[in-house]
From TrEMBL:
<dbReference type="InterPro" id="IPR023393">
    <property type="entry name" value="START-like_dom_sf"/>
</dbReference>
<protein>
    <submittedName>
        <fullName>SRPBCC family protein</fullName>
    </submittedName>
</protein>
<dbReference type="Pfam" id="PF10604">
    <property type="entry name" value="Polyketide_cyc2"/>
</dbReference>
<dbReference type="InterPro" id="IPR019587">
    <property type="entry name" value="Polyketide_cyclase/dehydratase"/>
</dbReference>
Amino acid sequence: MITVNESIAIDRPQADVFAYLGDPRNRVEWDSSVISEELTSPEPIEAGSTLRTRMLAVGREVTFEWRIERFVPPTGLTVASTSGPMETTLRIEITGMDAACTVTATISDVAVPLRA
């Protein structure tokens, strides 16, 4: 299993940061590996919603399908792949107060190919 953790301090309120990161249509703006990401289920975005992401991974273009497993404004969300080259989970935690917060993203995979 591979796990990658990244954290960044953001000079914005927690609720604003969650609103931006919690909308998959914004991911192409903050994740340089993402070519496109779209909501594939009806709004509102919530636990159970589904997504499709085209991205560059290990030098090639791949597509992942995701399900939002946890969606808890303004503190975080978790998405898990339902198809793609490997089983992957992205967990975003947002902590902080008033005018600033810290975002921690944890990506983990079990390095086992999924069946398409």
